[in-house]
Automatic annotation (TrEMBL):
It is found in: Membrane. CDD domains: Porin3_VDAC. This is Mitochondrial outer membrane protein porin 2 isoform A. Belongs to the eukaryotic mitochondrial porin (TC 1.B.8.1) family. InterPro entries: Porin_dom_sf, Porin_Euk, Porin_Euk/Tom40. GO terms for cellular component: mitochondrial outer membrane; pore complex. Keywords: Ion transport, Membrane, Porin, Transmembrane, Transmembrane beta strand, Transport. GO terms for molecular function: porin activity; voltage-gated monoatomic anion channel activity. Gene3D superfamilies: Porin. It comes from the Eukaryota. The keyword RNA-binding does not apply.
Length: 276
């Protein structure tokens, strides 16, 4: 694949991941193993509100093809097929769920040194068509996406964004919700290894005249331990600690409290991911 501006979904992703990734109020256990045939087996169990769910997934890579099959406790089988470079500089992704025969989706991604293009079509009689594109370089990218429902003849979404990425920082502005919201974020790495970082994000909803401001950061306590925290202007404070107990196996504990309503019960989450 080319080293171009990246997909539209990459705009603002680094800031979003730092503020949201690995935060949870569930209890989650993930165990992965590898077979001699090259199949990765992953079993996941999630407990939330006293209810337990889970799934078993098998992932197999063969040359430029990746096959991912998942079976959950609701007896739903989810399958994703990924084909790299069937055509030069392209990635094709086909996905579907059984027994929902209308869940099929086909996505094609095209990568160029100065542009990327993604088209996704739902495989049903009156499909929803999603198209996104970016132009620019790995340093600065401008992009847009739109979704069109052929059954209603209307747009389901249209979004535009711009990002600027430097070796030690990244910034982005996204106009979303059909023009009803705007989000600006800035992330700055605090060390050369990019183990620690600070981020700020502000979102304005025009229809409700509401502003949400969030600051957060991550700090590497040592090579195996990382601490993250976030706080918004509504008083929601979240924090997590993540520790690599053995190589590739991670223990994460997270929590969130409402600093403006301390009488409310805080939320806590626990996750263990074991890999060989």
């Amino acid at each position: 694949m080319s080293k171009g501006p990246g997909l539209f979904t990459d705009i603002g992703k680094k800031s979003k991941d730092l503020l949201t990734k690995d935060y949870s109020s569930d209890q989650k256990l993930t165990v992965s193993s590898y077979s001699v045939s090259g199949v990765t087996l992953t079993s996941t169990s999630v407990t939330k509100g006293g209810l337990s769910t889970g799934d078993v997934a098998a992932l197999y890579k063969y040359k430029n093809t990746v096959i991912d099959v998942k079976l959950d406790t609701a007896s739903t089988i989810s399958t994703t097929l990924t084909f790299n470079d069937v055509l030069p500089s392209t990635k094709t992704i086909a996905s579907f769920k059984l027994p929902d025969y209308n869940s099929g989706k086909l996505e094609v991604q095209y990568f160029h040194d100065h542009a990327t293009l993604t088209t996704a079509v739902a495989l049903k009689q009156s499909p929803v068509i999603d198209v996104s594109a970016t132009v620019g370089t790995p340093t600065i990218a401008l992009g847009a996406e739109a979704g069109y429902d052929t059954s209603s003849g209307g747009f389901t979404k249209y979004t535009a964004g711009i990002s600027v990425t430097r070796p030690d920082s990244s910034a982005s502005v996204i106009l979303g919700d059909k023009g009803d919201s705007i989000k600006a974020s800035y992330l700055h790495h605090l060390d050369l290894l990019k183990k620690s970082a600070a981020v700020a994000e502000i979102t304005r909803k025009f229809s409700t005249n509401e502003n949400t401001f969030t600051v957060g950061g991550s700090f590497a306590v040592d090579p195996l331990t990382q601490v993250k925290a976030r706080l918004n202007n509504r008083g929601k404070l979240g924090a997590l600690l993540q520790h690599e107990i053995i190589p590739k196996s991670v223990f994460t504990v997270s929590g969130e409290i409402d600093t403006k309503a301390l009488d409310k019960n805080p939320r806590f989450g626990l996750a263990i991911a074991l890999k060989p």
